Task: structure prediction
Amino acid sequence: MKSIIKSGVVALCLTLGAAFPALAEELVLKGSTTVLPIAQKVAEAYMKLHPDVKISLSGGGSSNGIKAIVDGTADIGNASRFIKSKEIKLATSKGVYPVPHRIALDCIVPVVNPGNPVGDLTMEQLKNIYLGKIKNWKELGGANAKIVVISRDTSSGTFEVWEKLVMKKARVIPSALTVPSNGGLVQAVSATPGAIGYIALGYVNEEVKTLSVNRVQGTPGTTRTGQYSISRPLFMFTNGWIKGRTADFMNYLLSEKGQQLVKEAGSIPVY
Result:
């Protein structure tokens, strides 16, 4: 009787095992919309190699990516800027030790509507546009049309780099329109003839026209050499040094194949 019961239990376990396969291992990535295309590209390739792994991705900005690491709601926090002192202080107070991993390079390019004849601006002109001191395109050699200033929201790492490198910490004009993502900014500029905005290099497409700055075009080459001044590294943050599945994913991203995917996503490989 015991052997019959035992056989029945084994059979039931096998049946349940077939009905409910082992749960897929999951990695959660949150944060920067600039890093998002890289994360998507690499995650798709990685999951093809590892069908037992599920990777979930979401944007929301660099601040939200770092917050997710601090809160423990993500394995990896994507950021297009470095972590701030106050974020480190908050993290360590909760026993979290954020570790940065530089995964790519990027430059931020000013963009206008494709119908705009202006092709180059100086850093000073860009700053004055965003301060509201230059209000009409005719002041810059363009048409007699009002400049519509579009910026990113304050949770964006792209906004913070623009604020630091272009604005020199001066405040963007309060009447500027704000959008929550690079993609949203592209849509807003393409739909508004007098608009100007700024986006990560990976989001440049035919819907917008890029401007050179101080007669230097933002490209992978000018970013690598430092000729183009509005540039920055891109990061993924983890809680402590990486191990297990997170380490394997990060090593894949930084491999030759992973860095090729970075390039295909429109960003600039580190290696």
